[in-house]
Amino acid sequence: MNRVDTADTRPAPSLGAVPFLKTAAETDTIVLTSRQREQLMQIGIRLRLPARKVIYREGAPADSVFAVMEGTVKSYRELPSGKRALCAFLFPRDLFGLAERGGYVNCTQAVTPVSLYRLSISQLTLLLKRDAELQFQFLAKVTHELRESQRRAVLINRRDAAGRLAMFIELMAARRDRLAVRQREVPLPMSRTDIADYLGLSLESVSRAAKELRGRGLVKFENPHLVRILDAAGLAEIAAAV
Amino acid sequence: MNRVDTADTRPAPSLGAVPFLKTAAETDTIVLTSRQREQLMQIGIRLRLPARKVIYREGAPADSVFAVMEGTVKSYRELPSGKRALCAFLFPRDLFGLAERGGYVNCTQAVTPVSLYRLSISQLTLLLKRDAELQFQFLAKVTHELRESQRRAVLINRRDAAGRLAMFIELMAARRDRLAVRQREVPLPMSRTDIADYLGLSLESVSRAAKELRGRGLVKFENPHLVRILDAAGLAEIAAAV
DNA sequence: CGGAAAGTTGACTTGATTCAACACTGGTGG
DNA sequence: CCACCAGTGTTGAATCAAGTCAACTTTCCG
Questions:
Q1: Is B100–A242 a contact, with Cβ atoms under 8 angstroms apart?
Q2: Helix ranges, chain A (H)
Q3: Closest alpha carbon to A28 in A20, A37, A16, A36
Q4: Is-contact A115 A91, C-beta < 8 A?
Q5: How far is residue B37's CA from residue B18's CA, in Å, rounded to a whole number?
Q6: pLDDT per residue over A124-149, tens digit each?
Q7: Least Cα separation, residue A98 to chain B (angstroms)
């Protein structure tokens, strides 16, 4: 408040979501007013974490909600068998820190070096109850994440590994499109194991699926963390053929 | 407002969700004030629909959000192949009507005869922006649905049909517990096909999984829509062994 | 440059799907 | 009252895709 312009010059948290209504369709991103961003910055602290850093574990006391500024985070659950089920990848403008009865419901870990905003839940609650407009942005964001979660559930219902991977690549490409240039190059910051856990496949199946997509001339893996889409239509066809 | 007490005597919409914080842990249900219920009733109308009635289709213009009063609703997506992927079953105190850019993202259909509250999205938006406390209840509810969706995603990641069905029965039982008596009898209002589409299995696999659970003496199917849990511990063991 | 982690490939196994036949149920009409 | 019929659910046999195990290659990072 005493430094109003800092909201524009210092990195401030923001949220990305597709809106409920058609009227706001021009943008995919929730635009927070600089006052709102300033308010969020006041109840939160900036955090930089190295890759692989565990941010919190399932069941740990939940006192914070996090907004991703830079980098990629994964949210997962450890299963009794020792396997892990990935619930979501989180990118800039995403929110995480889902709690239930005061405890986190997932584990989260940095995939790449990340920059986060850590917001105190109790302070955020107060703020949201005071500022209904800001709360509405959060409501839109959580709704967006619900849609994404459902989309993933539909995705992993598929039987064919190649189709799942195709959908995944499209998902990552769509995210990139939303952010910036419509490029054919899609970065995959996560490991094959992470992709496998996200798609509900074995590591080897992901590898074989990648081979098949490559064999059909749909994509080219420049390196393990960068795919180039060669035939967008062909890829879309496989991805859609559920 | 002119009939304040009607909120208690006439059926009014309510929401059920596990809260974020431990402090409110005593109850699973969001308690709306009678004023809030009255406000919701004023922007909505009561709706009674027969079983099988399609409530809305994917892509249709989204102008309403629905609260379930009685009965069961299913939310699903029609896939290009003609299959359908069930996203969720909705029970009393649940909310549905997820929209994206002004269109619904799923189809919804009544599984049993249902009683719904239909709330105008535009009016609800105005109301939520005026009443931050009420909006917070909606935020909690959507968050709850996000958790449920993630839980289901973990569920269908499993390989074994029997385990999935066991989890499903526990899910339905937990819902019942929350509502009322801790009974061993769990009603399954939906068809086997619906269960199959929800679990990501074929109809036959559900049938065989049921046979296996029955064979192990864990459950007894009194009839296709009513399971009795005979060995809760054994069922839990299979359900947990992911 | 070396060692460890990550990714790929191959051979075999397993479990769900598919296709097809059959059983059960509740409602209708002769 | 019973026979029929359609919708729903069950069971069986063959197939096929993904999992597993194991060997190998590539990439990454100190």
A1: no
A2: 6-9, 34-42, 121-130, 132-155, 161-179, 192-199, 203-215, 232-240
A3: A16
A4: no
A5: 19
A6: 999 999 999 999 999 999 999 999 99
A7: 8
- The tokens 């590994």 sit on which residue? A161
- Answer with the residue of higher pLDDT: B19 or B92: B92
Six token digits for residue A73: 């985070």
Ordered DSSP codes for A4-32: TTHHHHS----EE---SSGGGTT-SEE--
- B63, B65, B150, B197: which to substitute to probe chain A, counting the most A Cβ within 10 Å? B150
Q: Find which nucleotide's C1' atom is closest to B192's CA.
A: D9
Q: With an 8 Å Cβ cutoff, are A106 and B150 in contact?
A: yes
Q: What is the pairing mode between strands B219-223 and B64-70?
A: unpaired
Name residues whose C-beta falls within 8 Å of residue A180's C-beta, 6 or more positions apart in sequence. none
Residue of A nearest to B65 (CA): A20
- The one-character DSSP state at A20 is S
Query: Residue A37: is its pLDDT beyond 60?
Result: yes
Residue–nucleotide distance: B45 CA to C30 C1' (Å): 46
DSSP A67: E
Amino acid identity, residue A184? R
- CA atoms lying within 13 Å on the CB side of residue B33: 10
For residue A108 the two structure tokens come to 């989260």
Strands A185-187 and B73-78, bridge-based pairing = unpaired
Residue A75 binned pLDDT confidence (cut-offs 50, 70, 90): very high
Distance from residue B201 (CA) to nucleotide D13 (C1'), in Å?
19
Dihedral over Cα of B129, B133, B138, B144: its sign? positive
Distant-in-sequence, close-in-space partners of A221: CB < 8 Å, separation ≥ 6: A210, A214, A227, A228
Give the containing element (helix H, strand E) for B168. helix B161-179
pLDDT value, residue B24 = 53
φ, ψ (nearest 5 deg) of residue A31: -100, 115
Q: Are A96 and A15 in contact (CB under 8 A)?
A: no
- Find the residue in B nearest to A157 (Cα): B200
Q: At what angle do helices B161-179 and B192-199 cross, to 10 degrees?
A: 110
Is the per-residue pLDDT at A8 higher than 80?
no
pLDDT-derived band at B183, boundaries 50, 70, 90: low
Query: Which among B63, B78, B108, B139 is the top mutation candidate for probing chain A, defined by the most A β-carbons within 10 Å of its own β-carbon?
Result: B139
Write down the pTM of the prediction: 0.91
- CA–centroid distance for B130 within its chain: 28
Structure tokens that stand for B200 in this block: 């990501």
